[in-house]
What we know:
8-stranded mixed beta sheet; Immunoglobulin-like; 3 domains; alpha+beta
Amino acid sequence: MFRINLLFTFLFMVLAVQVSTAQKFLAETFTDVTVSSDVTYGMNATALYFQQEGEAVPEDLKMDIYEPVGDTANERPLALVFHTGNFLPPVTNGQISGRKTDNSVVEICTRLAKMGYTAASVTYRTGWNPLAPDQPTRALGLIQAAYRGIQDGRTAVRFFKDNYNNGGNTYKVDPTRIVAIGTGTGGYLVLGMATLDDYNEIISTTHGPLKFMLDVNMDGTPETPMVVPTYHGDIEGKVTAVAPDAAFGFPAGDTLCYANYPNESSDVDLVMNIGGALGDISWLDENSAPIISVQSAFDFFAPYGDDVLKVPTTGDDIVRVQGSSIVAMEQDMLGNNQKIKDANIADVYTTQATTNSGIAGHSFYESLYPVTNPPNSNMVDEGVVVEWWDPSALSPPILPDFPNGVPWNQLPHPSGGTFHDQGLALNEGMSAEKARMNIDTIMAFYAPRAFVQLDLCDLAPPEDNCVVSVENIKGNEVALTLAPNPVGNEIILTSKEEALMRNVQIFDINGRLVRDYQGIDNNYFYINRSNIPSGSYIMKIGFDEGNVSKKLILK
């Protein structure tokens, strides 16, 4: 506790990215959003139904697009959000989640739209066999599934760029400010989108070497790539690919990749992975997009460091991958996050990330937020919990026996109990409130970094008085007083007459926003403690000159 308090004491003596009042792109400034559902952004071949059809099946690629109601801007930053799901559909993946309508992605997209973004919850092709009998076959299935997912993510980027150039910019996006965000398996996808810019990187991996190659002739040396553009298409999904033979199990002449928007760029300007890992750290180079990472340092599903990914249900090895700590360290060495680093963002979330980095056993790397929660009562690390569900809601259709689905708390799980029971084992006390508190932290860590990296000050309306790199100030510069402290039921803030408080925020020791008061514009402010629990908090008070932070103790 002393270490945390000491960090808070010195936290606000550095430069930070700040804005004078609640403003667009940093806070929710719109109250309502509109959603365009099931927008088709492309078409491509899925392997999901191969067992029934004997060939790859063309599949429409869909997304739901969220926009702020009442926004008059002609262009907005675009955020593409990719759900979790183990590259398999719900139920088949052993999970309740895995759709573009998962509560987590709906929540994130809604928040982004209220902040002034256009946000899209994007589906992508699924299908592989995690229960394959040997490790090379499991690795083959996963890299091909990830390859298709990366193609689809890049197709979604090009859909919006094509709409901007040729379709009237229906969704009011700025094609130079595009973010890709992925939760769980979506984290693997967006990290690939940020880094994999040359097919040869798949066959020349370094951690470990040749891990995406097959030893077809059984001579002890892998010689055949698990992904081949002639069969599977290019890494962007811009070129149609027809299998010349049945080398990968599909019939000769089967189309395995369809071209979508080949004249547009697939580049993104920023990525955030919430969980997941990178296929190989050698993919990351000086050309990679800036990356924000949020991951548990003790992640049960995806390595936080350099380790072998395993099938969650069986524990069988799949392939060696690199997690967020390795990605962040490499990004720091290459300087890919330097623009964000130079902004010297100093807030309670950065402080908590710094503290958590020490718990995780490494230095703080800009734009990495390690989650270091203790294990639950099942002695399982829950990761970054952003999911919740209605136990009595119906699963997707289970054909032919249950075409309308089965309630999650009745649907038997292969590992025992019901799907709801298995979900609770990894999300103890599951609730919307629990997930939203974690999403609060993720979005608060993300927002100022995206604001800097995407130059969103340039898109902010004039009335926001957008200012970057305002210095945090000491309380005596504005004669700030907080009384009493420790606090009983009342908190009274005063400042000198000409130093008006613009906003006040209260954060708990984990960096979560507890109270947010905007538009104060006075040198006196009274807060009724109401139902804020006892404990230690940080209060951030915004002035025109900068911000002051005070430690707050509630009895």
